[in-house]
Design a protein that fits this description.
Length: 69
């Protein structure tokens, strides 16, 4: 299971202007990120055939990382 962000995931979070504290995240920060990534996955992460698209793949990776903390 992944436990560290890649540059792609960091860029994704920053480009969408999500206010995550990368320096010293609290449990609340991790929980909020998990909720945000799950919502983004649900609304933007699948194509018309319900296959994960690039946004979905990135959100799934972020969810994996957030749940590991």
């Amino acid at each position: 299971m992944k436990t560290e962000f890649t540059e792609k995931e960091i860029s994704f979070i920053k480009e969408r202007q999500y206010p995550f504290n990368f320096n010293s995240p609290s449990e609340d920060d991790w929980d909020a990120l998990l909720d945000w990534a799950a919502d983004t996955l649900m609304y933007e992460g699948f194509d018309k055939d319900y296959n994960a698209n690039e946004v979905g793949d990135t959100c799934e990776d972020i969810i994996d990382i957030a749940t590991a903390h």
